[in-house]
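Posting this for the archive.
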Amino acid sequence: MQNIRKLPIGIQSFENLRKNNYLYVDKTEFVYSLVHTGKVYFLNRPRRFGKSLFISTFKAYFEGKKELFSGLKIEELERDNPDAWKCYPVIYLNFAQNNFSKENFLNECINLQLEEYEKKYGIEKKYSDNLNPVHFAGRFINIVKTAREQTGLQAVVLIDEYDKPLLDTQNNEELTEDNRQTLRALYITLKALDENLKFVFLTGVTKFSNVSIFSDLNQLNDISISENYAGICGITKDEMLSTFEPEIKAMAEKNELTEQECIKKLEQIYDGYHFHHNCKGVYNPFSLINALYVKEFSYYWFATGTPTFLIKKLSQSTMNYMDLSNGTEATAQEIQDYRNDNPNPIPLFYQTGYITIKSYDKEFGVYLLKYPNDEVKYAFINSLVPSVLNIQSTSELDIVSFARDIKKGDIESVMLKFKALFAKLPYTTCKKEKEDSIVEQNFHNVFYLVFTLLGQWSAVEETLSFGRADCVLQNGNNIFIFEFKRDKSADEALNQIEESKYAEPYLACGKNIIKIGASFSTKERNPSEWKIK
C-alpha cells in the first residue's frame, strides 16, 4: 500500500500530529534550547502561526512522552542527558479555542480549566463561588503547590494565547478592563510561585504592555524579536523544500507551472515574515499548508479573520494607507508597545502580522516595516475598499474590469471608471480648508487602492510616490506612466513626465510606453480631464 502523506490542516496538538503520522516541520531544536537555557518565556506571533502546536510540544516533552520525539532533533540532543524525559506536572491553560466577547465567558473558561486540575490532584473545593475571579489566584497557587508536593517535581506552566480575552473585547472597553484585571490577578501568581516552577511559557498575538505581566514578571524573557528564535514558528524556505517537496511538485503540475515557478509564486504570496532584521523570512504555515493541500493559490490566512478593528485603528490615526505599502519606520520599543489607548497603529499591525520587518537602520535603531507578502497586501487592501470608497463590497469596485481595460490599453475606459468611483464618495460639510484636505486625501486613496489592487495582474512599480511618477504599470507589451495633478491641467501632468524623464528607465526594453496626464478638480471632486500621449 502506498504511503499516504498527511498534511496537518488544523492540527494544533503535537501528540495528535505525531501519533497519526502527519507531516511535521521539526522545531524541537528550539524546545531543547529554551528548556536548557532559561525558565520563563514569552512569545508573540500572529494568529494561525503555529503557536498552539509549539506550546503543545512542550507539554509532550515535559510529560516525558519520549516516543513522540523519535527521529526528531531533540532525541539526539537529549541522548546523553540522564535527567531527560522526566514526567513533570504540567498546568496547561488554553485560551485559544474560546470567544470572550461576552461577560463571564473568561471566568467560566478559567474555572473549567482550574477544576480539571483540582480533580486531577484531589483538591477539595474551598469556595462557594468558583466563578469569582478573586478566587482564581488562590486556586491556581494551590494547584501548583499541590502538584509539586504529590510528584516531588516542580511544575510546568504553559499558557496559550494569554491575550485572546483582551483581543476579543476590542469594542467593549468595560469588559476589556474586567478581563484585564482577571488575567493580571492570575498571571501575577507566577512570580510568587517561582520556586515551585520548572518552566513557564506564554504565547499570544500581542504584547499588551498594560496587563502588567511584563513589568510584574521581571524574570520573563521575551523572545519575540530574538534572532535565535526568529524561526520558532512559521516555515522557512529550507524547511518547506525538505518537508513538502512532493506536495510542491503536485501543486506545480496542477497549475501548469515548473517546480521553480511554483516555489517562486508560493514565496511571493505566503513568505516574507521577519521577526528579526538579521534572519531568513518565514512562510505563514497556515496558508502554505492549505495551499499545498488544495493545490490552489488563494488567501487562506486572511479568510480566517476580518480585521475590522485594524481598519478602525488605522482610520483613527494619522498613518496613511500608502505607508503600509511604501513602508513605515519604528523602533523596537514602538513595535512592542501595544495598548488599547495607544493612538499609534504600528505595534498592533506588526504584532498581528499585517506588517513585518523588512530592513533595519543600525545607525538610528529603526526598522522598516511593510506588508510581508501578497496575501496580506491584497487581502487587506480589499478589506479597506468598502469603507474608503463608500461602497458595500469590493465587487462594486470591479477591479477585474480595470485590469482588463489595462490589458487592452483602453485608458479612456479606465479614467471613466475612476470618475464613477469619485462620484460615490460622500460629500463633506466642514470648513473649506478641511474639506479640501479631505478631498485631496480621497483623491490619493482612490488611486492608491485601485493601482495597488491592479498589482495582482500587472507590475506596479511606483504608487503615488513623491519625486517619481505617480504610477508606472507594466502589462504585457505596454508600460503605462501616470501622473496626476490637483487643480492643474492635464498638459502640466504630461509635461512633468517629459521634463522629469520618467520614461527614460524603460526606453531600452522595447515595449510601448504610454503616458497619461490627468487633472483632478477639487471643486468638481472628480478627474476633470486627462490626456494620453
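The CA atoms of residues 206 and 364 lie 25 Å apart. The two ends are 66 Å apart (CA to CA).
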